[in-house]
């Protein structure tokens, strides 16, 4: 048997788009910069040449109208993917995403649905400051009717993009520019990663590290460091943050009794708070220690590289939190 | 321009279906039997009927908060609408949407929503879908004069023009954005002219003259259908009821701040009366024949209201149903 093919995270997304557009003529890609590598990296490469400008639509800077158009096209039977090359730009599109798409199936009594993918790229670092760095997955996850996925690996990037496109509901697909160069095995044939199903990355008996997207890799690094100290850290990659794979989290907690929730978003009312609340509500009996959150502080993203260094959380922060939980120091 | 007798009588029947429905809701609203905010369409019937009669069944329409008329004119089922307005299980949105979210996908009425201008971009997307599929469909976006205060409308004008999408911008200018007279919302220029900087032609039409509305809608639809791109129609009209509810308040308190003489003047331009006069004067039908149509419609509306009032509410254990497809 030959070893599995390895490709980068961004090209895995690209392959998903090619395969989805080839398989289904109702799939189209729309958004700012879809023909510019400067905006969307190589995720859209080759699509315009292959599928033409009718289905690969670069747009004027009009996030509200363009996102609304994707929603309306979905209502009219298409399966659009609308890309926001920086998530921050999606605030202009909250009305079509939240007021319309998320509510649509419910407020139509189930007679209409919105199979659209809202693809938002987290694009932080590089002294880009507060409006070019935000991770907004927690805000979307708050809204009924939206699903939210955050792949950490190339395999999941392809499989979750394909699943998001085929899902009959609006799905917010959040990726992270910092992951685009990440390499990993990606099967050539189309496949889906089930939305709502997390992944046990590695086993451990002392503490559970729950993470998503880029922070999964920081958690993995932390687990390796902790292993050297004799602490067994179990790492869970949520993959989907709405709906959460609650059973996976609780079964791990049952085993370890300790929980560190790691999130690349803000602290208050965020994803980490939700996971911690679930642990308190449904895993209280398993807990040997308080749940700890490792998140961004409740502070906008700074520009200065010196400040960025202390703003973003790393494996060291996770180690510190886990070590304290397990050893008390 | 004249039309076959059947078509003109169809206009009359459709306008009456809307009017008598709206007026039949007044009493249940005042009694508290209907609680969902109803933005009654009385007075504006010529717009929905004249425009939708220019469309095929497969064409798309998106409405706004005041869309009972759009729904009926596009072919939505009256009983399902009445039941939705009573928020019952048999409603077109299973009691989840109420008056402001009427929908009939099978008739091309793709939906309505009360976020001002919120569905303009959705109609843009329906037109985009038609353009990608090259299926010849046309989309119509119904919105009010208040909606042109929203920035997204201008984004939509630009994108529709840029991609030559088959989209009719149908602005119902009833002179008031809720309580705000239009002169307090924008300088006095014709609304249809907002399409001009984007290269979108348009015109202002007497929105209480169904014949004029229909003729303009045919021009717009023809342009869209033949690949000419979007078109802007501004219909000058007037609501004969309050912004929401029979008066300007759903409880029926008199809060209509419009000048009484203005209301009286517009009652004199009632689109249904005008069409009836045209029909009788032109010998298209006799007053007795019109009376017969009215009686048929009255019975249809009464049956719809009775169906709605007797329908059960949605089961409480199904409150979470339809969050996800």
Number of domains of chain B: 1
Calculate the mean pLDDT score of chain B and round it. 95
Number of helices of chain B: 10
Widest sheet, order of strands of chain B: 2-1-3-4-8-7
Helix residue percentage of chain B: 40-55%
Structural class of chain A: alpha/beta
Overall description:
The complex is a heterodimer of chains A (329) and B (325). Chain A has 329 residues and is an alpha/beta fold. Chain A is globular and about 60 Å long. In chain A, 39% of the residues lie in helices and 18% in strands. In chain A, β4 (79-84), α5 (94-107) and β5 form a beta-alpha-beta unit. Chain A has a seven-stranded mixed β-sheet with strand order 3-2-4-5-7-6-12, with helices on both faces. A five-stranded mixed β-sheet of chain A has the order 9-11-10-13-14, sandwiched between helices. In chain A, strands 1-8 form a two-stranded antiparallel ribbon. Chain A contains twelve helices and 14 strands. In chain A, α9 crosses α10. Chain B has helices spanning 5-30, 45-52, 68-74, 78-85, 120-133, 151-162, 210-225, 260-267, 271-281, 287-310; strands at residues 60-63, 109-112, 139-144, 167-173, 176-177, 180-181, 202-206, 231-236. In chain B, a hairpin with a 2-residue loop joins β5 and β6 (180-181). In chain B, α1 (5-30) runs antiparallel to α9 and α5 packs parallel to α6 (151-162). Chain B is of the alpha/beta class. Chain B has a six-stranded parallel β-sheet, sandwiched between helices. A two-stranded antiparallel sheet of chain B has the order 5-6. Chain B contains ten helices and eight strands. Classes of the chains: A alpha/beta (329), B alpha/beta (325). The interface between A and B is large, with 43 and 46 residues.
């Amino acid at each position: 048997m030959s070893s599995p093919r390895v490709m980068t995270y961004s090209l895995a997304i690209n392959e998903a788009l090619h395969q989805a557009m080839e398989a289904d003529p109702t799939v189209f890609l729309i958004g700012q910069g879809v023909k510019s590598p400067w905006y969307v990296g190589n995720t859209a490469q080759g699509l315009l040449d292959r599928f033409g400008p009718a289905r690969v639509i670069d747009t004027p800077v009009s996030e509200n109208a363009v996102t609304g158009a994707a929603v309306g096209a979905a209502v009219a039977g298409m399966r659009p993917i609308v890309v926001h090359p920086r998530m921050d730009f999606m605030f202009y599109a909250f009305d079509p995403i939240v007021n319309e798409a998320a509510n649509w199936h419910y407020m139509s009594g189930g007679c209409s649905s919105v199979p659209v993918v809202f693809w938002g790229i987290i694009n932080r670092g590089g002294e880009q400051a507060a409006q070019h760095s935000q991770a907004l997955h927690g805000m979307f996850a708050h809204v009924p009717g939206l699903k939210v996925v955050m792949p950490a690996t190339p395999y999941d990037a392809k499989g979750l993009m394909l699943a998001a496109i085929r899902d009959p509901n609006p799905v917010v697909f959040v990726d992270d520019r910092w992951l685009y160069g990440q390499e990993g095995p990606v099967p050539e044939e189309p496949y889906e990663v089930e939305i709502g199903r997390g992944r046990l990355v590695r086993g451990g008996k002392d503490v559970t590290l729950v993470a998503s997207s880029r922070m999964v890799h920081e958690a993995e690094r932390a687990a390796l460091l902790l292993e050297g100290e004799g602490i067994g850290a179990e790492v869970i990659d949520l993959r989907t943050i709405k709906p959460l794979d609650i059973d996976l989290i609780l079964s791990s907690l049952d085993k370890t009794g300790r929980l560190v929730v790691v999130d690349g978003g803000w602290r208050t009312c965020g994803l980490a708070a939700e996971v911690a609340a679930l642990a308190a509500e449904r895993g209280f009996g398993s807990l040997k220690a308080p749940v700890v959150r490792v998140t961004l502080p409740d502070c906008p993203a700074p520009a200065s590289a010196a400040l960025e260094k202390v703003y973003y959380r790393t494996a060291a922060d996770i180690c510190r939190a886990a070590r304290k939980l397990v050893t008390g120091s | 321009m004249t039309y076959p007798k059947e078509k003109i009588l169809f206009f009359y029947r459709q306008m009456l279906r809307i009017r008598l429905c709206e007026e039949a809701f007044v009493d249940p609203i005042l009694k508290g039997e209907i609680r969902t905010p109803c933005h009654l369409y009385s007075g504006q019937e010529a717009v929905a009927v004249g425009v939708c009669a220019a469309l095929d069944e497969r064409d798309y329409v998106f409405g706004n908060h005041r869309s009972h008329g759009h729904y009926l004119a596009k072919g939505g089922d009256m009983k399902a609408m009445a039941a939705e307005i009573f928020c019952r299980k048999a409603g077109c949105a299973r009691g989840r949407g109420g008056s402001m979210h009427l929908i009939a996908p099978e008739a091309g009425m793709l939906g309505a929503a009360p976020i001002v201008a919120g569905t303009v971009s959705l109609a843009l997307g329906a037109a985009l879908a038609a353009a990608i599929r090259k299926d010849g469909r046309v989309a119509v976006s119904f919105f009010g004069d208040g909606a042109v205060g929203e920035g997204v409308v201008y984004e939509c004008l630009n994108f529709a023009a840029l991609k030559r999408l088959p989209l009719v911008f149908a602005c119902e200018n009833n002179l008031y954005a809720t309580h705000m007279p239009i002169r307090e919302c924008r300088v006095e220029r014709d609304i249809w002219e907002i399409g001009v900087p984007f290269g979108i032609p348009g015109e202002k039409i007497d929105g209480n003259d169904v014949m004029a509305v229909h003729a303009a809608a045919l021009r717009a639809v023809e342009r869209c259908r033949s690949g000419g791109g979007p078109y802007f129609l501004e219909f000058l009209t007037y609501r004969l009821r309050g912004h929401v509810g029979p008066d300007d308040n759903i409880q029926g308190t008199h809060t209509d701040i419009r000048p009484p003489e203005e209301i009286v003047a517009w009652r004199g331009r009632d689109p249904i009366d005008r069409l009836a006069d045209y029909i009788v004067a032109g010998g298209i039908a006799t007053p007795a024949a019109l009376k017969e149509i009215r009686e048929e419609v009255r019975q249809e509306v009464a049956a719809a209201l009775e169906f709605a009032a007797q329908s059960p509410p949605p089961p409480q254990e199904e409150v979470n149903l339809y969050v996800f497809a």
